[in-house]
Design goal:
Blueprint: E1 11-14, H1 19-31, E2 35-39, E3 47-50, E4 53-58, H2 61-68, E5 72-75, H3 79-91, E6 96-99, H4 106-119, E7 122-124, E8 130-133, E9 137-140
Parallel strand pairs: 1-2, 1-5, 2-4, 5-6, 6-7
Antiparallel strand pairs: 3-4, 8-9
Helix pairs in contact: 3-4
Length: 148
């Protein structure tokens, strides 16, 4: 059995600057997840502060991964932009991509699923609650209180 997520995982949140992304990033951080960056095209160079710690925002996953060594991405972007977000993560060499977004067109899902398989990327979702390693790390919308 493989462990896909643990306390060493470095996580990027695609869509961290949005309402849902920000809310769930805060919850993941409170659980102890190592959030190292956010990605929102056009907002690179900004940061989002949680508690007292600023987390940098990048324009692309490649920039974020290069700067932080991230190996996991969680996607909180609207359905029309989800395919581009997933393909961005795959192209950047992210090992595990967790797609929370619901309502993604089936054709878009089929395209990024095939790209993930071709690249050897682990893909969870779309429309999933995420993944949790009890007491270690939580990526997605799963309430951490149920897995302590």
């Amino acid at each position: 059995m493989a462990i896909w997520l643990d306390h060493r995982s470095k996580v990027i949140v695609q869509g961290m600057t949005g309402t849902e992304g920000r809310k769930h990033t805060n919850r993941m951080l409170m659980f102890g997840t190592r959030i190292v960056a956010g990605v929102t095209p056009g907002k690179g160079g900004q940061s989002v502060t949680f508690e007292e710690d600023p987390i940098p925002v990048f324009n692309t996953v490649a920039e974020a991964a290069h700067a932080t060594g991230a190996n996991v991405s969680v996607i909180f972007v609207p359905p029309p932009h989800a395919k581009a977000a997933v393909l961005d993560a795959i192209a950047a060499g992210i090992e595990l991509v967790v797609v929370i977004t619901e309502g993604i067109p089936v054709a878009d899902t089929a395209e990024f699923y095939a790209a993930a398989q071709d690249a050897g990327v682990r893909l969870l979702g779309p429309n999933c609650p995420g993944i949790i390693s009890p007491g270690r790390s939580n990526v997605g919308i799963i309430p951490p209180s149920i897995a302590r």
